[in-house]
Amino acid sequence: MSEHKHWRSLFARDEKFLGSWNLEKDGKYEQVVVHIEKFYQDTLIGSMGKESKVVCKLKEFDKSMVVNRTNFKRLQQKFGSFDMNDYLSKPVILNVEKVKSPEGMVDALRFSTRPAEVKKSLPALKDEDVAKVKEKIANGELTLEKLKTMRTITKEQEDEIKSK
User: Fold this and answer.
1) Is residue 102 located within the same domain as residue 70?
2) pLDDT reported for residue 79
């Protein structure tokens, strides 16, 4: 089966700004938790010619994102403030929504007002506990999958646990 890819991904290296196609994976758009590093003005050259736009740099992407009034209103609602500085470095969900435009319905990047679920890091498995864990797995008291929900393990630790 072939992998689904948005046609815009063929031109992605030429695109200066982030687009919906950057959130596409195997034919579907995925929401992503992002962190805004800064806001600044930049020039967008599009169908309307040169336009000055507000953009933001996201920690998770190399390209910046054009931020329109709708996205600013959502950030204001989410964080309870009109001050752009209150949005910096905080987790926010970025997703793709269908919106009306002069070109008809298009896919647009949108910040969500929903709380961003930030995965908390699990405590690491100590090297001295690997033998005990291996024994528990051998006795059927624990599975590797269950262990991974309780502790982070290194590749070396996993290989040791799996070895006979």
Assistant:
1) yes
2) 95
